[in-house]
């Protein structure tokens, strides 16, 4: 058997039973592919089930408010995926009469749909012979063929796409594409690949050269930036608080948060109190205290957020305040959601 035949045989025997594998509906394939970008299947599966239950069709998703979409997405990270997905659903309904384009060229024009996602939908939903190349596929191809090109370089991206096209099985592209991604996720895993019982081990160049853990090659990541967040959790005597919505193009766009003071380093209470008085324009602050013993370090792809939650108690009633019990209804970053869960127990 050649490379693609071995992948197909392995997939037939080892594939996981996943809900998007039982359909060719482009809406559901699209949902799953967007959710699984930079997300493990185990983490993404509950979100997929929630979205399909809440929004059974692209029309339902298009009609939903962004706030509701972001709330359902809460905790999955990379929120631009959710915003793009919502925008694209509306485009599909408005410009395509609710029907997804049936070709790679048509699909890739949609917002938030790149080469990989367009290839996946085109091949799985419409059987178009278009190769998929995701992180799992890069790993399989780099190891099996012993390729040193960086997978995140322009040269590497082109080379791996061309190679993926060359070795794919065009007659069974739907199963082959799903098969090679599954093979990379399970058999040719990043840290503990099962080389001993791999159907490709007799001809894998990386295995023969003892280079399995060196491949694939990736260019160095962008330098991590440290940021210092101070959230001001204001509470009056009636347990009212208030939230603000994040604007701009930074992280967590359109999610809600407690008023934020960002500093250049960890702040002492005295300095925080001065800044909070300026920002909140509140009178009769009775107490300010730090909720967490040490900064919570929240790690994003290129940023580490050193975060403190300051409880700001005021004597006067907050005008148009939000009852604390309603805070959970707003879409917030998981960092804040975790705080809300623990603070409610006090």
TrEMBL record:
GO terms for molecular function: purine-specific mismatch base pair DNA N-glycosylase activity. Keywords: 4Fe-4S, DNA damage, DNA repair, Glycosidase, Hydrolase, Iron, Iron-sulfur, Metal-binding. The keyword DNA damage applies. The keyword Chaperone does not apply. Binds 1 [4Fe-4S] cluster. Its cofactor is [4Fe-4S] cluster. Residues 35-186 form the HhH-GPD domain. SUPFAM superfamilies: DNA-glycosylase, Nudix. InterPro entries: A/G_AdeGlyc_MutY, DNA_glycosylase, HhH-GPD_domain, HhH_base_excis_C, MIG/MutY, MutY_C, NUDIX_hydrolase-like_dom_sf. Its EC number is 3.2.2.31. It comes from the Bacteria. CDD domains: ENDO3c, NUDIX_DNA_Glycosylase_C-MutY. Adenine glycosylase active on G-A mispairs. MutY also corrects error-prone DNA synthesis past GO lesions which are due to the oxidatively damaged form of guanine: 7,8-dihydro-8-oxoguanine (8-oxo-dGTP). Belongs to the Nth/MutY family. This is Adenine DNA glycosylase. It comes from Croceitalea marina. The lineage of its organism: Bacteria, Pseudomonadati, Bacteroidota, Flavobacteriia, Flavobacteriales.
């Amino acid at each position: 058997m050649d490379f693609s035949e071995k992948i197909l045989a392995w997939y037939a025997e080892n594939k996981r039973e996943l809900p998007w594998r039982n359909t060719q509906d482009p809406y559901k394939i699209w949902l799953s592919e967007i959710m699984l970008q930079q997300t493990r299947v185990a983490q993404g599966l509950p979100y997929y089930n929630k979205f399909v239950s809440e929004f059974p069709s692209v029309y339902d998703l298009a009609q939903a408010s962004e706030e509701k979409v972001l709330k359902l997405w809460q905790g999955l990270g990379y929120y631009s995926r959710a915003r793009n997905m919502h925008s694209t659903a509306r485009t599909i309904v408005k410009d395509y009469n609710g029907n997804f384009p049936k070709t790679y060229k048509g699909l890739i024009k949609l917002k938030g749909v790149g080469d990989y996602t367009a290839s996946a939908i085109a091949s799985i939903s419409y059987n178009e012979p278009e190769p998929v190349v995701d992180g799992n596929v890069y790993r399989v191809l780099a190891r099996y063929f012993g390729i040193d090109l960086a997978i995140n370089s322009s040269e590497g991206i082109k080379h791996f796409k061309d190679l993926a096209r060359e070795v794919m099985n065009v007659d069974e592209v739907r199963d082959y594409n799903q098969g090679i991604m599954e093979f990379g996720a399970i058999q040719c895993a990043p840290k503990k690949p099962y080389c001993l019982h791999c159907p490709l081990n007799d001809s894998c160049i990386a295995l023969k050269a003892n280079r399995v853990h060196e491949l694939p090659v990736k260019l160095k990541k962008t330098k991590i930036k440290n940021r210092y967040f101070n959230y001001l959790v204001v509470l009056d005597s009636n347990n009212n608080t208030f939230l603000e919505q994040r604007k701009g193009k930074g992280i967590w766009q359109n999610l809600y948060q407690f008023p934020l003071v960002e500093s250049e380093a960890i702040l002492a209470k005295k300095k925080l109190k001065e800044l909070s008085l300026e920002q909140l324009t509140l009178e009769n602050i009775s107490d300010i205290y730090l909720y967490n013993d040490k900064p919570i370090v929240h790690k994003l792809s290129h940023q580490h957020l050193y975060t403190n939650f300051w409880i700001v108690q005021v004597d006067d009633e907050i005008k148009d305040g939000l009852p604390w019990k309603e805070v959970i209804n707003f879409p917030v970053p998981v960092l804040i959601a975790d705080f809300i869960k623990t603070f409610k127990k006090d």
